[in-house]
Amino acid sequence: MAAFVGTMKLFLSLVLWLNTFSALQGAKDFYEFRYPFIKRASSFSSSSSSFSSSNTDEVSYDYIIVGGGTAGCPLAATLSQNFSVLLLERGGVPFSNANVSFLSNFHIALADTSPSSASQPFISTDGVINARARVLGGGTCINAGFYTRSNSDFIRRVGWDERLVNESYPWIEKQIVHQPKLADWQDAFKDSLLDVGVSPYNGFTYDHIYGTKVGGTIFDRFGRRHTAAELLASANPKMLTVLVYATVQKVLFDKTGKRPKAMGVVFKDENGNQHQAFLTNNRRSEVILSCGAIATPQMLMLSGIGPKAELQKFNISMVLHNEFVGKGMADNPMNSVFVPTNRRVEQSLIQTVGITKMEVYIEASSGFGQSQDSIRCHHGILSAEIGQLSTIPPKQRTPEAIQAFIKRKRDLPHEAFNGGFILEKIAKPISTGHLNLVNTNIDDNPSVTFNYFGHPRDLQRCVDGIRTVAKVIQSDHFTNFTKCDKPTVEKLLNMSVKANINLIPKHTNDTKSLEQFCKDTVITIWHYHGGCHVGRVVNPNHKVLGTSRLRIVDGSTFRESPGTNPQGTVLMMGRYMAVKILRRRLGKAAGV
Fold this sequence. Notes:
alpha/beta, disordered N terminus, 6-stranded mixed sheet, 6-stranded parallel sheet, globular, 25 strands
């Protein structure tokens, strides 16, 4: 069996390689990373390391974008139509990575904790296992693929131009978004949602509308993922340079004027060598941080912008005191209920969603990867891993305890993996937390607290959501599909409590008290945001307050996660902000 699995993995890698190679047929050169403008960080050279950008021999850029993720790729592709852009990404490329490219390997990408993985795990101080992307394309490379637009109220609250927003979404959708082939599990889930009153049925739509709908996906009909990195195909190749394995250490500032002025960045290549990249002398040139809600506030602090006490604690030279950097961190708490079946179910990620008026979203997933090896892996939040009791408090994670934890996972029988989950997620959580440095190494995760269910309103919404989930599972549509007897709520919760989902100690009343169940089984769906709020850290144009030539374009500026899934809006945000920048600089001559 192991030999067969190894052969299949080799076959899939060969298919991916041939697909990439065929796209390059007829080209003069073979490019290591699909596009000629993507290069290794070690290839970067500047004829001068002088800080003064008046040196005419020094290579400089109109825009330096830190982070080639969900927002960074469309941002870079659009800005490059008129200006020189340097995009710096700490990870590699997704194009030939089978764990990223195929839906069936979704869980394996999350299981890979090696330094070269597309996914970097972290555990919040709340005890919830989480992940952040480390690859060109960012979160679009490791997420469940669901695509939806935000609700119109969100667009109005953030003050964006609705007309430009409605022009920017289609720019993304035409390139990487697809209509899913609805899995049987998702179809039964849809009928059950309608049966319990989550109506009307809105069919297939990108729009965020109350009721039940089928959304878009970045997986095509062959199960192949299309990421934000593919949007770089729309760039002007003569004006864009993308460096992968380029880990930015900090932003460089000129502090001789009235306010700190961003001049460039320091980054480390894959060999550990340091480089400096600089902006042109033009006052409108900018360093743009698109590192995401975890790394952007971390990057600001490591660059000297943040709470004075935090910077002093780590002997970081202060550029600008701002007490709000790293504050207001939020993650939409999610809880899941395991649903066993007496039939084989195909793997499906998020396709159908119920949008309720109680500010709770109901979603579903089913199955697991088909590899026998994958059964022994951590499958992330959407796996059907049953029978793994997580009782390790955050402060008791000794190496011995972690090894025991891993052993229990490997002892699981194959039968434990049949079934799926019904998920409920809280929209617009009131509870917020904070982010703090643990050291000055950008490669290390900062300390993050989300304070799940810190506000009683969030907890009540979770209880309401779990009650709705139970009704969905007990509906005739779902029991007819699963071919199981109608389960009691206590039985459903008992199976779910035993699932390996977080490192929060469990309580004996988890199946009796829905409030306790919510607290003890909270997990994430990676929709964390905040840390650099508009009005606190950036202005409405996303320029960092108190500085010049420094901007932030990512989810760290959000006070809420838009829609049922933020990826569509973050992708749109990259395009939207770039068009706004071009039009302000060039007017109609921008051509966008």
